[in-house]
Amino acid sequence: MLSCVLAASPALMLGPVASPALRHASPVMQQTFQREQVGYGTAIYTGGVVPTRNAPVKADSTILVQGGSLRTWSYRSPSVEQVQVVLSTEGRPLDADIELWHGPDNTPCKMRVYVENGQLRPFSAVIETPRGPNTVAIRNIGQIEFPIAANVVADQVDSPSADCIAASTTIQGGALRTYPFDPTVDSVQVLLKTDGRPLNARIELLQGPNNNKQVIELYTEDGLDRPFFAILETPGSGNVVRIVNTAPIEFPMTAGVVPHSINTDMSAADVVIGGDIGR
Fold first, then answer.
1. Residues 77 and 125 placed together within one structural domain of the fold
2. What pLDDT score does 274 carry?
3. What is the rounded distance in angstroms from the CA atom of residue 185 to the CA atom of residue 234?
4. pLDDT tens-digit map of 171-183
């Protein structure tokens, strides 16, 4: 009887050993399958994201600012004395607030910018940033459906030409002045400054009666230390730049507005609003 039990014991021992081996093989195969699936999914995700992220990398480092969001560019070096701000869209309206932060609760320059078509007329302005550190803050105050492309650069900044500086004239507080331009003028330079007093102005680009294509509401605490310079795109005909000194009469300013680029291929048969092109 004992010999029968001993003879049967190897069979009994093989039973429990064989059964876990079969049960153990199934989880191993499942884990291997899941690992392959995860690796496959990761490869798809990586291959779809990395090229998209690396494709728009350019030297200008343009950033997309969604509607209602804020982006900042900080410059700690005192050697950065001016920066250029460029804003554009894909053809939709552009509505933004631009501020210069210099220390806590100190905003020496700020402006409100509206452009009817940010692709046809991108906004480009130079902001003086003496005595760093300085921070340029751009807030898209438009709706979330209207993102803007913002870029702030500190090298190769535009500067006013000698003609623009020489053409500066005085605009008293509360007064306005208009500058009509030829249809062949594609862009104009605008330079505003004071003798050290605050600068408050409203710059409008009109194309037709009371048809604002671009509006800039500007404030600068010192128009001599921080003058305003911008290049306005003026495609088409009937373009007029209107500058209003919104400060009191005790705060005059000087304004220089001259053509920046000329389109020699402009057709003479283009419609001219007002008919004053020959004068």
1. yes
2. 53
3. 7
4. 999 999 999 999 9
